[in-house]
Specification:
Length: 253
Amino acid sequence: MGVLLVISHCLTLAITALNLKSTSYRVLGCSLVIALFAADMSIAAHPDYTVGCFLGGLTLNAIRLLLLTRPLEEYRHETDKVPAYQLPYSQRFFWLMSISLRGIGWSFEANHSIPAIEPHHLTRKAFVISRLHRIFVYFLLVEAGLLYFRCNPVFSSEAPLLSQGYFLGWINVTLLLWGTYAGLNRVYSVVAVIAVGTGLHEPRLWPPPFGKWKDAYTIRRFWGRTWHQFTRHVSADFPAANMNLYLNFIRRP
C-alpha cells in the first residue's frame, strides 16, 4: 500500500465533491476507484488480513459515498452554516475529508452507540494525560500478546487455534481478539493525542473507540455498543439501500 492507495481515496472524495446527478457517471467513477484499490492490493508487498480489511473498508466507503448516498445533500455537520453542496468545490472536498467514521458531530451520528468521555477528561490537559497513559498500557498489552504469538507454534502454522485443546484454544482465541482490541485502542489514542494536543479538535470529538464490556450481554449489544463502530454507517447503508431497491420494485404497477 502506498501512493496508489492515497490517490484512490482522494479520487473518491474528488468525484463525490462533484455531486454528479448522473447515475452512469457515478457508477463509472466508483468502478475506477475500485479498480485502483484492486491494483494496489495486487502489488502489495505482503498482503494479509489487516491489509485486506483496510482496503475492503475503503472500497465499501467509496461505494457508500458514490452510489448509496448523496453526502453533500444528505449529511450535515453541527458547524455547517449552509448546505455542503452550496460550497465551492475545494471546500466540498475538504468537507468530505472531515467526515467522521462514527459520525461524531454529524447528522448521522448514532448517539446510543458512542461511549461518553469521562467528565474529568474533558479539559485538553486531562484528556492528553489520560490518553498517554492508555497508550503506555496498550503498548505493554500488545507486546505481551505478540510475545505469546511468537512463542506459541499454532500461530506460525496452519493448524486451527483450537487444536491445542479447549483451555489453550480458548486462550488463543481470546488473545487474538484482545490483540485487535488493544492495537486499535493504541493507534486511536495516539491520533487523539495529536489532534487534541495540537488544538485541532476538542476532546469531546474523541470518545473511546470501544464501549463498556458489561454492556455486551447479547450479540447485538456486543456489535452495536461494545465493539468499535468505525464501520457502522458504511455497513448499515448497504442493507438500507437493498431494502429501498426492493420496496421500489414491488411498488411498481
